[in-house]
Fold Polyprenyl synthetase family protein.
Amino acid sequence: MSTQTLDLGRTSAAETRESVANFLEKFLTEKKEKAVLPQAERLPQILAEFLTGGKLIRPLLTVTGWVAAGGARDSEQVVQVAASLEMFHAFALIHDDIMDHSELRRGRPTAHRQLSADQQGSGARHFGVGAAILLGDLAFTWSDEILHRADLTPVQFASVFPVISEMRSEVMLGQYLDLRGTGNPTDDVESTLTVSRYKTAKYTVERPLHIGAALAGAGLGTMDVFTAYAIPLGEAFQLRDDLLGVYGDARTTGKSHLDDLRVGKNTTLVALALRAADPGQAALLHELIGNPSLDEAGAEQVRKIFAETGAKDTVEEMIENRYRESVEALDGAPFAAEAIHALQDLARNATRRTS
Amino acid sequence: MSTQTLDLGRTSAAETRESVANFLEKFLTEKKEKAVLPQAERLPQILAEFLTGGKLIRPLLTVTGWVAAGGARDSEQVVQVAASLEMFHAFALIHDDIMDHSELRRGRPTAHRQLSADQQGSGARHFGVGAAILLGDLAFTWSDEILHRADLTPVQFASVFPVISEMRSEVMLGQYLDLRGTGNPTDDVESTLTVSRYKTAKYTVERPLHIGAALAGAGLGTMDVFTAYAIPLGEAFQLRDDLLGVYGDARTTGKSHLDDLRVGKNTTLVALALRAADPGQAALLHELIGNPSLDEAGAEQVRKIFAETGAKDTVEEMIENRYRESVEALDGAPFAAEAIHALQDLARNATRRTS
């Protein structure tokens, strides 16, 4: 992402990232220093590490929504609200990684794996999971604390809070449906797209824009434009994620490209392949996807079927169509040119990324 | 608990319980009917069931703190804040039960066990745990939503929120320390009491009183009286819980009296027994406590050592001393006589309960 085209006045993307990261670092340093329970300092420590290396896409979108809706530049308020969303995202990822049995996140062992290493003996794994549940809970608590420290006016708070609350429920319910489908892949493409809509499109793109815009006092018209832009873009973002989950390079994604297959994630890619598969291919997919000890050779077989059934190409096409739909939604939007450019850039980068 | 002595004007304990329970039932019915994702209706359904049968001790203390600090009777606000704490407690229990491998809660299978039954095959257990993590997360989200719907004035909110946030962190950090000690019991009595202070005394007694009082605009003097009352009472409450965890009748506690021993919970009772044990007794305790397949006969052996080492009697004595200290803290407190009576009753019931 070039700084130039994302230059939202003085609040460029790079500056937004830096402001949010600095705020979170300071917040967690304070939590370590003025600890309620100093014996538990390991938790803010792991969280601080966890928070470095994220893409900070939700904070960027929050600031973009704010600027597009006419919010003043250099606002400490919007930075804090954006930081609160990033902290919430840490919560969501830490819990997701437990549910998905993930080993790697942002190039490091996942939180439950790091915490397992703190305990010895047969209970270590269980301890790691329990402590990571608590670490996630703490991140949720602290994200709420950051939100309340942002000194919003009562009117701002009343506009923003219902959207944040809706966002929290949506991502949890989306993740629940995702989990329910995991390990039992089907050819039901529609239901994989419903999961993407809640778990990603609304959570990652639509709600952060809405939150920034609500903070700036935007009306329903602005919200609708953001929805029209965000839903296809968010679906495309998830479809790209599904491809990276199978084809990505761990050195750039920070995640193993075996995790999704091993856990049997019911992605749109998998559903499309099952829909187009002949009986032999379908049997092989059912055997390999969801097998916790799947190796590189097995993954290669799966990838071969994704290519042969045309599923991979279809997903690329779906991404392209959604990308275009998303950018078209900006036509005639009553936003400053700089905000339009930022949103166009974000759409391009989110759908064409390699990490 | 008699209705008479707990009669806080028209807001008696029974009425408080009923108001809170009704509010939560209505809230969850609305969540089911206007579901964000109707396919996920199972989650509010389980939560509604989970919320029936609780002792509602935190809501009662919230209302008591409010009335003691001069809050007006029949306030819908305080009922909603109390309901928000009870919903938060559901979150905490659902996650705790996962960490503690508990099988029973309030006489029913724990949430993760109920959710496991929704899935077939080898992944069922893992699904149950993941879905219960999400159910807990959702309860947290909804507890926050209830708090914000309570229509507090900005001044009330600014007084109450920091206490709520502190309470959330305290219980999570206390639970983390508890988890870290579990499976590896020691004779460190002090550290078991630190865990009780954070996980129970502050969370169950002190903070609910503070929250009710803050809502009514109480000053620091009132807060200090509540702290002096709450900390010994809360420790006594936890010590009683530790005894019930080993000696309680599942028909009245709703929990198995093998769970704590099987998971190897490092309670004050266990620490005292280890401190006083001879080498033979200590070896036996280490062998039996934390053994996941401990049976009734093994538990009997443990109970025998708790008696022989005097640990059981010491815990009873500690409860009695703390009970007295707690009630004495009320001497000369500037509260209405009815509030003092309610607090005295609560202290008696919390330390002498059988469930």
Strands of chain B lie at 104-105, 108-109. The longest helix of chain B spans residues 154-181.
